[in-house]
Amino acid sequence: MRAEIISVGTELLLGQIVDTNAAYLAQRLAEIGVDVHFKQTVGDNATRVEEALRLAMSRADVVLMTGGLGPTEDDLTVAAVAATLGLELVYDETVADHIRRFFETRGRVPSSTVYKQALVPRGAHVIPNDRGTAPGVHIEHRGRTIFIMPGVPYEMKGMMENYVLPALRDRTGLTVIRSRVLRITGEGESAIEERIKDLLQQTEPTIAPYAKLGEVHLRLTAKGAPEEVDAALARGEAQVRERLGDLVYGIDEQTLEEVVAQALIAKNLTLAVAESCTGGLISYRLTNIPGSSTYFLEGVVAYSNEAKIRDVGVDPTLIATHGAVSAEVAEAMAGAIRRRSGAAVGLGVTGIAGPAGGNPDKPVGLVYLALAGAGGTMHRRLTFGAEAGRQGIRVLAAQAGLNLLRLHLTRA
Amino acid sequence: MRAEIISVGTELLLGQIVDTNAAYLAQRLAEIGVDVHFKQTVGDNATRVEEALRLAMSRADVVLMTGGLGPTEDDLTVAAVAATLGLELVYDETVADHIRRFFETRGRVPSSTVYKQALVPRGAHVIPNDRGTAPGVHIEHRGRTIFIMPGVPYEMKGMMENYVLPALRDRTGLTVIRSRVLRITGEGESAIEERIKDLLQQTEPTIAPYAKLGEVHLRLTAKGAPEEVDAALARGEAQVRERLGDLVYGIDEQTLEEVVAQALIAKNLTLAVAESCTGGLISYRLTNIPGSSTYFLEGVVAYSNEAKIRDVGVDPTLIATHGAVSAEVAEAMAGAIRRRSGAAVGLGVTGIAGPAGGNPDKPVGLVYLALAGAGGTMHRRLTFGAEAGRQGIRVLAAQAGLNLLRLHLTRA
User: Fold this and answer.
1) Among A251, A284, A314, where does a domain finish?
2) Could you give the CA distance from residue B386 to residue B177 in angstroms, rounded to a whole number?
3) Which of B4, B58, B293 should one mutate to test binding to chain A, selecting the residue with the greatest count of A CBs within 10 A?
4) What are the MoaB/Mog domain coordinates in residue numbering (chains A, B) (predicted)?
5) Are A199 and A207 in contact (CB under 8 A)?
6) Cβ of B86: how many Cβ atoms within 10 Å?
7) For residue range B350-374, what is the model confidence (pLDDT) as tens digits?
8) Is A15 in contact with B38 (Cβ distance < 8 A)?
9) Does the structure's ipTM exceed the value 0.85?
């Protein structure tokens, strides 16, 4: 079964609102195994609604339309659909009653235009609206099914869950579609894709990469009977993990900071962070996790040399000898914040976020990360391209810092 | 001039991501007076991309496409467009060089598939990508103009602002459309709109509100001869400022942290920050500004009571008497970080971000902000709704902290 989505509303074509309805509809359809090949958006214009509907009916079995069901002049979706299909509009007493009661129970007086919403195409089924006045419309026409729903997300979702999805589910049978996202960090998008190139060709599950700043998400999707789908996803995950090993840091909605937090809690370890170029972002991300005070002891944003010396406790001669952006100072920051706070692990970050401050030896984008723990101190040197910009470099450096922590905690 | 938008990406048809690109494009086009009658969304499928493009070219002068420009097999937009128009793909050395340098400066080795992105239709103009590897493509074909841009919003927006909008603006003739954004913080969206309700009805300039988390943007737009447009924008800005006073913190792309930074620099003052519930976000935002080390002396993320005592220097009896989330502790944090760092101004933030830790006296969303300066110490008590969620409360508290700083620095 193939469906097409038509969003109606001039406000969508002016960019005044983002079409979250279409994403919701697409996702719910995917979950019950209904394919969507096209979405269309049109303004509140009868001719264009007709054009979009004709096109959709020429290539899909089911058409889901949202928007343009209200009481105003602009709201012309139902009339345009009826005209397209050559159906007369008739006054539905049940809908009119519903509207009357809706206003009565709220102690409000309806304007006369509201009853326009009681006009439905002859032969159509009314989809009840528990959450508002405009009814939905369900039309069966020459082998095609058309559902018209309001544009108000809350009302539309009520109709979708209670009426449209059950109706479609009856027709699709047992098939389900499920997805799993594997979250990956520590290498660039193309290097990761190179390592799993052949897997991206396969089906059951299909594997699709999505690049984010500092990480890549692989979405595995399978379709079929529920047990087959689960087996396919498990198989796909195992294939990816075999290739990428601990580049895979999490699944689905898991964030890198959550994984770090879980590892700290599991090992009963505490952490303190001294940040220079990342300016507090690592502390911020770690404390986004509820309950982070159990393992996050302290963060210091030591941006200037003076702050590195005074507040973190870095030996000034190290800065004078090696420069503030150096492996030595990163390690000193990690060690000093660990000692000062009494944490099990100290993380130090120093780098050049730019745009100024770079030179050929130490270009913008150079970052040193260091970890101090019971087993000693280590550092990593990273270079990010200056094109990432100041903010991009800061985000990438924070991501790399959290990933260094993750690898240290899960390997050790 | 009429434009049509085509979003390419199977992830859009599965509802895995919401199509914010299409809304952004529609909004920017509306601002320069370009009409959009239809938007289409298709999956990563050459036949359907072709079908969508043919339809768009049959009814629009300009077609804007986003998505499917990456290095993977799925990314077939450029090839599908070239096939539709009967154009050969040729290898563009300039693009290949850009890609090579992009990887070199990052010290990474590109996979061979990356260079697929250097294939562009013969006769097309390359739209440079400052922010990634995939170039955009600009094609003039039989009286129609086609722009192809990446799906990554950050890259797409760069191309739109720097290339596509200027190119389209040149064609819309002598009439200019200009916008100015007034950025407002310190009150809720509905309170702000209530105060300027009548202004939202006017034209020349039109004034449209956009609510963000913790701030509202008013976009003023005027259309006509350049001098008239500038006069209308100045008039509209004066009207808004008369109503809203210092709720208006900035213009256009100016951020709240930039305004704070400028005020600190103008007054030659330095700052230190002690954060609890905001966990480093205030420090992070302030150090996003290049050159922030001149005024930002130190940030401490003192999440636990121990850290507030040990690292900031808060008197433990204050915490015992009033609780960690109290006016007294916020003021003590501000005063102690100011003294310790030698900064002219100290900012302290403590609150309950939740989801746990609230009680009827001190509910989730309660935040105390305090400022310590040469003239003494003051605090503000704020309550954000628990519905904002942990992350929302943290963002709102950081915004309020920066705003308190701004008002202190600009009023004093």
Assistant:
1) A251
2) 41
3) B293
4) 4-171
5) yes
6) 8
7) 999 989 888 989 999 999 999 999 9
8) no
9) no
